[in-house]
C-alpha cells in the first residue's frame, strides 16, 4: 500500500508501517533489533545509520513535516502510531533523532526559507547528523546562565566557549548552539540560536566516559569556531524563545514509542522475578504492580500533553511528563537490582569495558534520567512558578 498519496485511515497507516517493518527488518538489518538508545548509542552505530537511511529512502522519516519540505503531513495520531509500531517491532534506536525530531521542526517553525532549503533535505535523507549545544559546565540545568559567546566578524560568527553533556557530538556534522551574542547581557537576554559546523579546526570534541563505560555524551570546545552570519535561527538576541521551542519538540510524539520500550523492560524484569521466585516477595510484588500502574499513568499524561501541544495550549504538561518518566525509569532500574539480588552485584565481564548485563546497564544509566533533559529541580520550579504562581526562586 502506498500511503504517500492521498488520505488513509489510521488502521491502514498502522498496517502499512507494520508490514514494511516486517519485510525490511530482515537480513543484515535483522541483527539490529533492540540495539542502540540511551546508554547504548555505541551499539552498531554505522549499521543503524544505514538503517536510518533505508527508512528515509522509503519515505519513513519526517512524517509530520509539511509536504513542501519532504514530509507527509501525517496527523499527530499517525505520528504516534508510527512510533508505537516502530517500538513494538523492536527496531533499532534512531541515529538521526536530534535532527529529525528537534532541529527540523525548529527550522520549520522559526527558520528562514534559505535555512529550510539548506538543512531540511539533509535531515530528511539522514545525510547530515546534528547535536544539541545547550548545557555548559556552569549552565547545566540553568540554561539561561550560558556563557559561550559568538561575535560577528565580517560575514562570519566567531564562537568561543564550552558545551558539555552533548549527546552524539562525536558523530555529528552540525550543532545548534545557544550562545551569548550581546556582550554584557545576562540571563535570557542577549542569547542567539546559531548553527555551527562541527568539522573545522575551531571545534574539539572530548568524550565523557559514563558509569556504563560508554561515552555517548561529550564535552565540546569552541575556539574561534566559525559559522556563517546568516545561520542564526530567528532574530539575533531571540535565542531563548527558539531554544524553548526546541525543548517543546523534544517531548513530542516519540515519547509514546519510548514508553513501549519501558513496557518491554518492565516485562523482562517481571519475567525474571517469576523465574527466580523474587515475585513471591510481597515488597517486590508491590513494586512491580506500582510500576505497571505508573506506566499507564505516564501514557495517559503523554496523550494529554500531545493533545495540548496540537491545540496550541500546552503549559506545564511537558515538565510534568519529564518528572513522570524520569523518576519512573530510575525506580525501574532500582527494581531491576532488587529482582536480580546478589547476582546483580557481579558484572559479566570487565566493567571498564562495559561488561554489564541488561539489568545492570539499566540501573547505571537511569541514574542520569532525572538530570539530563532538564533536572527534576528545574521541572518543579517551572511548575511552581508558571502554573501554581508561587514566588520565583532567588537567583544571582
Protein described:
The protein has 396 residues and is of the alpha+beta class. The chain folds into three domains: 10-95, Butyryl-Coa Dehydrogenase, subunit A, domain 1; 130-237, Beta Barrel (Butyryl-CoA Dehydrogenase, subunit A, domain 2), CATH 2.40.110.10; 251-387, Butyryl-CoA Dehydrogenase, subunit A, domain 3. Helices cover 45% and strands 12% of the residues. It has helices at 10-24, 45-57, 76-88, 97-110, 113-125, 239-250, 254-276, 282-311, 317-340, 358-365, 376-387, and strands at residues 130-133, 149-153, 156-163, 174-180, 191-197, 203-207, 218-228, 232-233. The strands form two sheets. The protein has a four-stranded mixed β-sheet. A four-stranded antiparallel β-sheet has the order 2-3-7-6, with no helix packed on it. The termini are far apart.
Question: In brief, what are we looking at here?
Answer:
With about 400 residues, this protein is α+β, with helices and mostly antiparallel strands. It is about 45% helix and about 10% strand. The protein has three domains: about 10-95, Acyl-CoA dehydrogenase/oxidase, N-terminal domain (Butyryl-Coa Dehydrogenase, subunit A, domain 1); about 130-235, Butyryl-CoA Dehydrogenase, subunit A, domain 2; about 250-385, Up-down Bundle (Butyryl-CoA Dehydrogenase, subunit A, domain 3).
What does the largest sheet look like? 4 strands, mixed
Rg from C-alpha positions? 21 Å
What is the number of independent domains?
A: 3
Strand numbers in spatial order across the main sheet: 1-4-5-8
Instruction: Supply the CATH superfamily name of the largest domain.
Output: Butyryl-CoA Dehydrogenase, subunit A, domain 3
Number of β-strand runs: 8
InterPro entries: Acyl-CoA_Oxase/DH_mid-dom, Acyl-CoA_Oxase/DH_mid-dom_sf, AcylCo_DH-like_C, AcylCo_DH/oxidase_C, AcylCoA_DH/ox_N, AcylCoA_DH/ox_N_sf, AcylCoA_DH/oxidase_NM_dom_sf, Mycobact_Acyl-CoA_DH
Keywords: FAD, Flavoprotein, Oxidoreductase
Cofactor: FAD
Domain Acyl-CoA dehydrogenase/oxidase C-terminal: 237-388
Amino acid at each position: 500500500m502506498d500511503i504517500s498519496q492521498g488520505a488513509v485511515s489510521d488502521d491502514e497507516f498502522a498496517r502499512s508501517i507494520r508490514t514494511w517493518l516486517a519485510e525490511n527488518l530482515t537480513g543484515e538489518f535483522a541483527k539490529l533489533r533492540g540495539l542502540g538508545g540511551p546508554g547504548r548509542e555505541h551499539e552498531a552505530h554505522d549499521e543503524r545509520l544505514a538503517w536510518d537511511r533505508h527508512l528515509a529512502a522509503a519515505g519513513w522519516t519526517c512524517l509530520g513535516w509539511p509536504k513542501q519540505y519532504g514530509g507527509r503531513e501525517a496527523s499527530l495520531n499517525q505520528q504516534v502510531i508510527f512510533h508505537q509500531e516502530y517500538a513494538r517491532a523492536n527496531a533499532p534506536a534512531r541515529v538521526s533523532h536530534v535532527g529529525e525530531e528537534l532541529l527540523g521542526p525548529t527550522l520549520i517553525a522559526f527558520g528562514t526559507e534559505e535555512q529550510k532549503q539548506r538543512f531540511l533535505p539533509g535531515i530528511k535523507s539522514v545525510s547530515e547528523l546534528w547535536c544539541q549545544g545547550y548545557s555548559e559546565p556552569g549552565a547545566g540545568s540553568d540554561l539561561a546562565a550560558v556563557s559561550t559567546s559568538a561575535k560577528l566578524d565580517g560575514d562570519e560568527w566567531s564562537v568561543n566557549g564550552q558545551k558539555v553533556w552533548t549527546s552524539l557530538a562525536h558523530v555529528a556534522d552540525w550543532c545548534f548552539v545557544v550562545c551569548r551574542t550581546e556582550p554584557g547581557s545576562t540571563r535570557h537576554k542577549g542569547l542567539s540560536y546559531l548553527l555551527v559546523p562541527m568539522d573545522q579546526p575551531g571545534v574539539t570534541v572530548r568524550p565523557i566516559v559514563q558509569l556504563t563505560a560508554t561515552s555517548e555524551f561529550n564535552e565540546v570546545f569552541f575556539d574561534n569556531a566559525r559559522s556563517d552570519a546568516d545561520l542564526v535561527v530567528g532574530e539575533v538576541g531571540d535565542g531563548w524563545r527558539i531554544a524553548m521551542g526546541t525543548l517543546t519538540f523534544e517531548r513530542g510524539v516519540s515519547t509514546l514509542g519510548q514508553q513501549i520500550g519501558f513496557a518491554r523492560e518492565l516485562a523482562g524484569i517481571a519475567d525474571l522475578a517469576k523465574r527466580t521466585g523474587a515475585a513471591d516477595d510481597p515488597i517486590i510484588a508491590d513494586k512491580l504492580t506500582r510500576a505497571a500502574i505508573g506506566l499507564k499513568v505516564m501514557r495517559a499524561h503523554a496523550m494529554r500533553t500531545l493533545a495540548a501541544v496540537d491545540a496550541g495550549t500546552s503549559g506545564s504538561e511537558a515538565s510534568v511528563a519529564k518528572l513522570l518518566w524520569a523518576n519512573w525509569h530510575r525506580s525501574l532500574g532500582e527494581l531491576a537490582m532488587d529482582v536480580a539480588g546478589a547476582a546483580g552485584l557481579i558484572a559479566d565481564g570487565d566493567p571498564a569495558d562495559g561488561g554489564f548485563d541488561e539489568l545492570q546497564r539499566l540501573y547505571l544509566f537511569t541514574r542520569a534520567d532525572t538530570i539530563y533533559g532538564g533536572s527534576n529541580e528545574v521541572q518543579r520550579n517551572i511548575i511552581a512558578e508558571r502554573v501554581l504562581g508561587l514566588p520565583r526562586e532567588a537567583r544571582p
